[in-house]
Amino acid sequence: MLIKSISLINFRNHNSYHLECKPDTTLILGENGCGKTSVLEAIYILTRGKSFRATDQDILKRGSDFYRIELEYDNGEKIIATYDGDKKTFKTPDKKSTRLSTKNKYPIILFLPSDLNLTSGPPSRRRDYFDRIFSDFNNDYASVLNKYNKALRQRNELLKSDNLDRSALFPWDLLLADYGSELIKYRTDYISEINQTLNQTYHSIAENNDRINLSYITTIPKINKDIFLKKLDQNYEKDHILGYTTFGAQRDTMDFIFNQKPAANSASRGETRSIILALKFVEANIIIDKLGKKPIILLDDVFSELDDTRRRCLVDNFKNHQVIITSVEDVEY
């Protein structure tokens, strides 16, 4: 499916906004701060079910008591989300719900300027990024991740208690071991799949012999629930003192390795941009392979961060997709 139009009311700094989208490439042109990214955010909410950067209260235009966004596909189907200051509701052709159903979600490749810094920074940045894209690959991953995080929050709340009964942690330990093992298995498989074509795709952009791959360092290399439970038990005293869980899938790290060294320390600015471009192209191909759908491409002001060669590469690789671009200057596509 292709997006035909998107409409916003009281969304971020928009009182009212409507965009007709082209089946190939749509350019949203404007100065910084005028709300271009908000349009992509609205599209993301109506295709994926949640924002990629904020809570609904943050999104609601100051002084307003509701927001409403509506997306229409080229087949006439409409998805509408409203937020009344308390809860968000999705209205689809078949029902009204507080969540966007799996069948009403559509795959998206989101490219933000911050993604170009993905090789550096804390492990949580890359973990959050890959959790998001793996959720796009597989809705079951999103479900398991959500259940794991809920169990983790409950366990952490108990750990903050001064009069904690250690046995009260056991049900949450069981859930963490169960869901955590699933997450690690999914992550291992998906990173292996990315690595099958990441290096080759990088070479097609950079045209050199450098080597790039993703490294996954997990807390439980053998994906064993019993070991998971044992480690949680062994760390109990430390966890209680600190007030949070120090072991588990939430501590896993994904790093880009460039010529057998961490890319954060060895790849140049241009090489880093080629790495991230390659990753985006691999993501799109995996989505097509797994879901049988061409993802919609949302590019948020990334053209200004790329040189002419990488711009052409970006355009060439996504020329058969619907692409929606924001930019502060006119761009060739």
Structure description:
A 6-stranded antiparallel sheet has the order 2-1-4-5-6-7, with helices on one face. It has a 4-stranded parallel sheet with strand order 3-13-12-8, sandwiched between helices. A 3-stranded antiparallel sheet has the order 9-10-11. The mean pLDDT is 93. The protein folds into 2 domains: 1-106 and 294-333, Rossmann fold, CATH 3.40.50; 122-293, RecF/RecN/SMC, N-terminal domain (Glutathione S-transferase Yfyf (Class Pi), Chain A, domain 2, Up-down Bundle), CATH 1.20.1050.90. Strand 4 (67-73) and strand 5 (78-83) form a beta hairpin. The protein is of the alpha+beta class and 333 residues long. Helix content is 43%, strand content 20%.
Total helical segments? 10
- Spatial order of strands in the largest sheet: 2-1-4-5-6-7
CATH architecture of the largest domain: Up-down Bundle
Helix content: 40-55%
- CATH superfamily membership of the largest domain, which one? RecF/RecN/SMC, N-terminal domain
Total discrete domains: 2
